[in-house]
Amino acid sequence: MRSTLRWAMAVGVLAVSFGAGAQNTIKVGVIAEFSGPFAAYGEQIEAGMKAYMKQHGDTVAGKKIELITRDTKGPAPDVAKRFAQELITRDKVQFLAGFGLTPNAMAVAPVVSEAKVPMIISNAATSAITTRSPYIARVSMTIPQVSAPMAEWALKNGVKQVYTVVADYGPGIDAETQFTKSFKAGGGEVVGSLRTPLQNPDFSAAIQRVKDAKPQAVFVFLPAGEQGIAFVKSFNERGLAQAGIKLIATGDITDDHVLDAMGDPTLGLITAFHYSAAHDSPENAAFLKAYAAANDPKVGRANFMAAAGYDTMAVIYEVAKKLNGEIDGDKAMAALKGLKWTSPRGPVMIDPETRDIVQTVYIRKVEKKDGKLANVEFDKIADVKDPGK
Fold first, then answer.
1. Exposure of 50 by Cβ count < 10 A (0-12 exposed, 13-18 middle, 19+ buried)?
2. How far apart are CA 252 and CA 269, in angstroms?
3. pLDDT of 158-181, one tens digit each?
């Protein structure tokens, strides 16, 4: 009897201790790709989160911030969904964040709708994601948001015929659709289009088809990282530049993280994007300093995903302040709508209607800056919304 009583009392003490600990913590479940071909996505998002916490501390509104990471190892919707369910029911997270790839984000949408847990998208860029749940907000971008400005810039600069090459998944289809729509609306002609596999693509056939079509330019969207390196290499090896074909793209292809690995063949490449590590502002300088201080140098140069990871924590901290540390799903989403802040990329806002980010889109050219390759901004369009919403 006494042993049973002691056991019951011990369990009660543990429960009280756990409850007190939980009440003093804001847990953020980070679901992303930390291994496999998209490992840099998760690494960069988490590195940006760590940079924010390095700069602003690991407590907000009297609560300790705890990151709990889960590795999907690539596009794995079922795995992402299972992780989300476990993080919500077992780990009692108050936010979900991360999501480098669209299929994983889409799979989690019904989970957060049912649980009423705020979900912050740190990268996945298919336009429709935020429409899948009222508990999703995005701090990264949408692909149409950066594709339309690229079409407009090309038309203004004498490019009238384009061939499109995109990865065959949500963001790639969004890029092809929006670029084509904007380009044709301005009088341009799309002379051909091609979709390539998301995993392990061979670009040799695609490059040859573009070369045979002889367009003025090829518009490209590929997921950041290895694919961009492979495409640019093949583009140069097969002599498309010498044939007078320009390469224009969304900024994923000249991702700051892999720009050095791509090398001088990228010089002069024009892209449209929302962030460059070369962006000249006090906020970006502070971000880059905190990024370097918070992370192992092996993580590499900060890129747009790191900046979005940083902004993910910025909105979580701001919501926590507004709610005095007491996180409620509906109140958190209300606090997110219309939220404005100055990001490392410039002034941004969460659109109160779409829960997508409103931001400046920059036209950039790859140049040497202080002896290193950089995406140097030379034009911009302010307050750009997703044109599809």
1. buried
2. 12
3. 999 999 999 998 889 999 999 999
